[in-house]
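Ticket reopened. Same input as before:
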Amino acid sequence: MMTAQPSVRPPRTPSGRTRRNAEKWSWVFMRITGPVLLILIVTHLFINLMTGDGISQIDFAFVAGKWASPLWQVWDLLMLVLALLHGGNGMRLLINDYAHHPWLRKVLHSALGIAVIGIIVLGALVIFSFDPCPVDADPSLLPSFCEDVR
Amino acid sequence: MTATAESPAVGEVKAMQVTLRILRTNPEGTDDHAPGESYWQEFQVEAHATDRVLDALHKIKWEQDGSLAFRRSCAHGVCGSDAMRINARNRLACKTLLKDLNPAKPIIVEPIKGLPVEKDLIVDMEPFFASYREIMPFLVTTGNAPTRERLQSPEDRQRFDDTTKCILCAACTTSCPVFWTDGQYFGPQAIVGAHRFIFDSRDEGQWDRLEILNDKAGVWKCRTAFNCTEACPRGIEVTKAISEVKKVLTTGEI
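Engineering reply: fixed in the latest deploy. New output:
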């Protein structure tokens, strides 16, 4: 004897996505990057503003000195990439909430994507192609190790 | 036995004047207002501190303006018909005492937000019920039906006890800021309804429901604003229930 199975209609709101767990991974990503960013940014602010001479120490030489170390290159790159992806994903969710016309959604998502990728590329370029000792610069503005380079 | 004679005021509840500001809408229009236009109207009623907002609404409808439209059925907080926005919070009119609302000021009564208003305080509940139907709010089993009850241990019953209290009044869903901006979101109530079956040891349709709630408009739209938990007249911990569904989806274990 078989019991009749209830027939159920498919969900009313098809997500329009082929990746079934996309929203789940987006949520997990936000949960993980949130605390990671908190540690990265608080440490960044502490090192820059609380140690040494505080805010008055920040000049070209200070930044150049930090980026001479691979640790701070990787640190700042991580901060840049995670902050933009985390913030960009948050903005994507806001667009999904507030932009109801499909074309408006598409325009805003595209603009957001271009901005996020553009800023990551430009920022990464600055971190890795940064020259701490420009040839024509006033030596008093440069980090101390530049004297050895000349 | 002279106590009652000495203090006749014991137990007497003083009458007071209460002003209600009601957001009204008439689809057919009135002499002063166009069809479908929303406008505020104030009513003065004499009420007791122990009266509820629903009693004040009844007084208005029965004694002052019979055209005032609102839903109510049992009037005792069980049927879930009279959820409305009272002083900017979703509550049941039949469970809200006037004395708890500072009757010195006008009491503001609006229809619940996010659903289309039909007339005055009556909204179209169909989108809300459609979301509830979507998550299959019924027992799903396979195989032959047992000849007796499907038994369950008290511990298994306890897992979904909180979400069985739902009366489908829509106070939670229409307090949700995500639902206000995007009506595609299933809303807290549908997730509560799904939670009740997902965590039921007798049910076998959990993963079908979880699949539905894993959608773009499903649990991931919840931003844990906690409005739903505050609005629920039955005291269901709605945000906690939603988080439990999220946890099952991320860990894969019920």
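Chain A touches chain B through 25 residues (CB under 8 Å). Confidence is low (pLDDT under 50) at residues 5-13 of chain A. Please confirm and we'll close it.
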